[in-house]
Amino acid sequence: MKTYLVTGGAGFIGSNFVLYLLRTHDDIRIINVDKLTYAGNLENLSSIEHDERHIFSQTDICDKPAIEALFAQYKPDYVVNFAAESHVDRSIATPEIFAHTNVMGTVTMLNAAKAAWIEPDGSFGDHKYLQVSTDEVYGSLSIDEPDSFFRETTPINPHSPYSASKAASDMFVKAYGDTYGMPINITRCSNNYGPFQFPEKLIPLMINNALQHEHLPIYGDGKNIRDWLYVEDHCKAIDMVLSNGTIGEVYNVGGHNERPNNFIVKTIIAEVSKAVNDPAINQTLITYVTDRKGHDRRYGIAPDKIKRDLGWYPETKFEDGIIKTIDWYLAHEEWMKHVTSGAYLKYYDTMYRNR
Ligand code: NAD
Ligand code: DAU
């Protein structure tokens, strides 16, 4: 039996990954370590409440003694580190928390894994540490050069405090591989969408606002491009890298699905309006607002390496993924009500009302 220590497993991608692992593997145990910040939600895991293969621990990845105790108690074979502050807009407002969680949290996890795994001869046995990173560490591409892509060899050039903190954590992970010979992989994926995504991010925010007849705030001219990846395809990629990725390697994971924000928002309007049969959900809800500071223009991944070496490819077409996603949010009204109560309203007010 393999034991996975998954951090951030109550957040968007982490909870999808935990559910994916339990669905696709029998003989495993997952130790899910999550601080439950505003972005973490145990309701995401309600379907596995009684699954004995899943153990939840409300723990901060920066809490060294608590993390060391979890390693001593559960002796994980693998670490998959999702836990992070993940929202670019929040990083522009409060960079320090991003440096703390994303950089110091990663170093704390690396140190604890190293101490628990290293043998007297300096070897690490059959363990692996996988860092879930982002294509944002590569910076931005031009919308006028559609044939240029982020590759694993693209120089790191982060722009936002969020991507700077992710790039710094990637460098620590690489350093633990290079210096101590720790078995690591780094995955860098493009924008995920799907169930359980917190409605501060573009797609769930637009779905929720459309349903409420709230305005749909598009930053700048809306021509910025993101490369959308259905979350389950990302989960599969992480699982494949964990089992078959070459030690020390970075793998880019992309949806081959670049779309301008204007297209995404217009698609959401059309599909939500159709799904709930409400003509008041239409393009008059769109409001162009002040651009994000330092807004990256385009992300686009060439996922050639993970395709060639591991046989992974994005299975979900955007046309299907967006319908599945909208249907999920429509069927989970209570989830949306829960996550958008209290502190969310204050966040939303600060972020958008006077934008
Ligand atoms: P999320 O914000 O939805 O979830 C983050 C989770 O981490 C939450 O459950 C939160 O409670 C937990 N967390 C935060 N600080 C913690 C701490 N100090 N200790 C323990 N837990 C803590 O994020 P997400 O969108 O699911 O992203 C997960 C990871 O994937 C992040 O590392 C992010 O950088 C990366 N990533 C995300 C995307 C995307 O499109 N969402 C794309 C590329 C990479
Ligand atoms: O590329 C991977 C990254 O994708 C991850 O590393 C991040 O954790 C994740 O949050 C995401 O970052 P983005 O900044 O690309 O995602 P976000 O959903 O915040 O924004 C997507 C695009 O939509 C971006 O160009 C900004 C724009 N946008 C966003 C919001 C929330 C708007 O125009 N209006 C909005 O209200």
- N-to-C terminal Cα separation, in Å? 52 Å
CATH topology of one domain: Rossmann fold
CATH architecture term of one domain: 3-Layer(aba) Sandwich
Order of strands across the main sheet = 3-2-1-4-5-6-11
Q: How many β-strand runs?
A: 13
CATH class call of one domain: Alpha Beta
Query: Structural class, from secondary structure content?
Result: alpha/beta
In percent, how much strand structure appears in the residues?
15-25%
SSE blueprint and pairings:
Elements: E1 2-7, H1 12-24, E2 28-34, E3 54-58, H2 64-74, E4 78-81, H3 88-93, H4 95-117, E5 128-134, H5 161-180, E6 184-189, E7 192-193, H6 202-212, E8 216-219, E9 225-227, E10 229-230, H7 231-244, E11 250-253, E12 258-260, H8 261-276, E13 286-289, H9 304-310, H10 318-331, H11 333-339, H12 343-353
Parallel strand pairs: 1-2, 1-4, 2-3, 4-5, 5-6, 6-11, 7-10, 8-13
Antiparallel strand pairs: 9-12
Helix pairs in contact: 1-7, 2-4, 4-5, 6-8, 8-10
Bound molecules: nicotinamide-adenine-dinucleotide (NAD) and 2'deoxy-thymidine-5'-diphospho-alpha-D-glucose (DAU).
Verbal overview:
By secondary structure, this protein is an alpha/beta fold. The protein has a domain at about 1-195 and about 230-255 and about 295-315: NAD(P)-binding Rossmann-like Domain (Rossmann fold), CATH 3.40.50. Helix content is about 45%, strand content about 15%. The chain is built from 12 helices and 13 strands. A 7-stranded parallel beta sheet has the order 3-2-1-4-5-6-11, with helices on both faces. The chain has a two-stranded parallel ribbon with strand order 7-10. β5 (about 130-135), α5 and β6 (about 185-190) form a beta-alpha-beta unit. α8 crosses α10. The longest helix has 23 residues, at about 95-115. Bound molecules: nicotinamide-adenine-dinucleotide (NAD) and 2'deoxy-thymidine-5'-diphospho-alpha-D-glucose.
